[in-house]
Design brief:
Keywords: Acetylation, mRNA processing, mRNA splicing, Nucleus, Repeat, RNA-binding. Plays a role in pre-mRNA splicing. Binds to the polypyrimidine tract of introns. May promote the binding of U2 snRNP to pre-mRNA. It is built from eleven helices and 17 strands. By secondary structure, the chain is α+β, with helices and mostly antiparallel strands. The relative contact order is 0.10. It binds one DNA strand through β1, β2 and β3.
Length: 441
DNA sequence: AGCACA
């Protein structure tokens, strides 16, 4: 075979092509100038400017081969050379048959977004914070995070391109709301393009990747034993490995926090299997067990630092427990196993009460049964404004729609609650326990 | 003046 490809390409024996290769162009030649040059000979359907080491080459692609031939033929016999800005340009058939535009993927709308987190502390942004941010626009199927030369990046998968587009339009160029991050970390700006991916492959739930459509996906070993990689917390400290069991300590407990109150608060994020309360360091702590890590992660994100009651009372501090399955010996006012049939329980309506009620959040077009209780139903309200929504806006749903919104003071009151208040000698203002409302101090 | 690097 004659090896045409091994020959120098600047013989004038290029086979015809719809694509012409132009050289000796002036610096920064524009697409418009190329179209002007080719227009007399046919329809220019594509161009590529600023090619080559000196950016002085370009391609133009005609709709039809004959148009390209016409242009080459014309200038082959013309006394006037082809010119751009008075500079002679040289034409020949390209050795390719079409222009491939490499700026496609980032411009074609898809259901997966490529998110670059910019900022000094970008790496400290947890996948859970990203999940919260993007869940405001619809159900987030999957998230993966990774390091590239571009920095800390994430792929965020939505159901469809429309949802992804609404998130992209609202978030691109914006900062992650301050109230989602601890105070001492630098602002993080989101840069968002479309990804060419349509379905991410997530093998494990881990600190780097999540599949929110599959709660039974195994948790990565590295996320369980914590021996290999800790994820960095928002404050830059090491995080304990995620767990399905949360350890909650209650600060400034002016009002009694009973087992039932805890069960209500934590049930907003999923089924609470077991709770155990105990005294430690002069305060009250509780272990709350969920069926899966994912639910616990969401609950922790949502509740950490928030107060059960208005006024900074009963502030929750939540960490992951090393337990995975609590051993509840007896059901009483300090410990309870909600997974076993409980005809003998004193207050035996809790879980069933919460189930349906917990799903009454309006605007919940997210997948049923998944844990989005705290996503703003009207994301545009929070994101369209230049100023990030105030802290209260994120959990505001819990204020408005949380099942524990008593029409009358102190509903679901338990004997234990009464007693503890009596013992403590602290009377709530006006004798009323404020409604449960997570709020930051 | 001589073929694109996503």
């Amino acid at each position: 075979m004659a090896s045409a490809s091994s020959q120098p390409q600047f013989r004038y024996t290029q086979p015809p092509s719809k694509v012409l290769h132009l050289r000796n162009l002036p610096w920064e030649c524009t697409e418009e100038e190329l179209i002007e040059l080719g227009k007399p000979f046919g329809k220019v359907v594509n161009t590529k400017c600023n090619v080559g080491a000196n950016h002085n080459q370009a391609f133009i692609e005609f709709a039809d081969l004959n148009q390209a031939i016409a242009m080459i033929s014309y200038y082959a016999s013309s006394s006037e050379p082809a010119q751009v800005r008075g500079k002679t340009v040289y034409l020949q058939y390209s050795n390719r048959q079409e222009i491939v535009n490499n700026k496609t993927t980032a411009d074609v709308a898809g259901n997966v977004l490529l998110v670059t987190i910019e900022g000094q502390d970008a790496r400290l942004v947890s996948i859970d914070v990203l999940h919260l941010v993007f869940s405001a626009f619809g159900f987030v199927h999957k998230i993966t995070t990774f390091e590239k030369t571009a920095g800390f990046q994430a792929l965020v998968q939505f159901s469809d391109a429309e949802t992804a587009t609404s998130a992209k339009n609202a978030l691109d160029g914006r900062i992650i709301p301050r109230y989602l991050l601890s105070e001492n970390i630098a602002p993080c700006t989101l840069r968002i393009t479309y990804s060419a991916h349509t379905d991410l492959s997530v093998k494990f739930q881990s600190h780097r990747s999540r599949d929110y459509t599959n709660p039974y996906l195994p948790v990565a070993p590295s996320a369980i034993d914590g021996s290999s990689q800790f994820s960095l917390g928002l404050d830059g400290k090491k995080l304990e490995p995620e767990s399905n069991v949360l350890l909650a300590s209650i600060e400034n407990m002016q009002y009694a926090v009973t087992l039932d109150v805890l069960q209500m608060v934590f049930s907003a994020f999923g089924h609470v299997q077991k709770i155990a309360m105990f005294d430690k360091n002069g305060g009250v702590q509780a272990l709350i067990q969920y069926p899966d890590v994912r639910t616990a992660v969401v609950a922790k994100e949502a509740l950490e630092g928030h107060c059960i009651y208005d006024g900074g009372f009963c502030k929750l501090h939540i960490s992951y427990s090393r337990h995975t399955d609590l051993s509840i010996k007896v059901n009483n006012d300090r410990s309870r196993d909600y997974t076993i049939p409980n005809p003998t329980m004193v207050n035996s309506q809790p879980v069933q009460t919460m189930g349906p009620a917990a799903h009454q959040y309006n605007g919940t077009q997210y997948a049923p049964g998944l844990e989005q209780p705290m996503m703003p139903p009207q994301p545009s309200a929070g994101w369209a404004s230049a100023v990030p929504a105030p802290p209260q806006s994120m959990p505001v749903q819990m204020t408005n729609h949380h099942p524990y919104m008593p029409p009358a003071p102190m509903p679901q009151m338990t004997p234990g609650m009464m007693q503890m208040q009596g013992q403590s000698g602290v009377s709530p203002p006006a004798g009323i326990v404020p409604p449960y409302r997570p709020s930051q101090m």
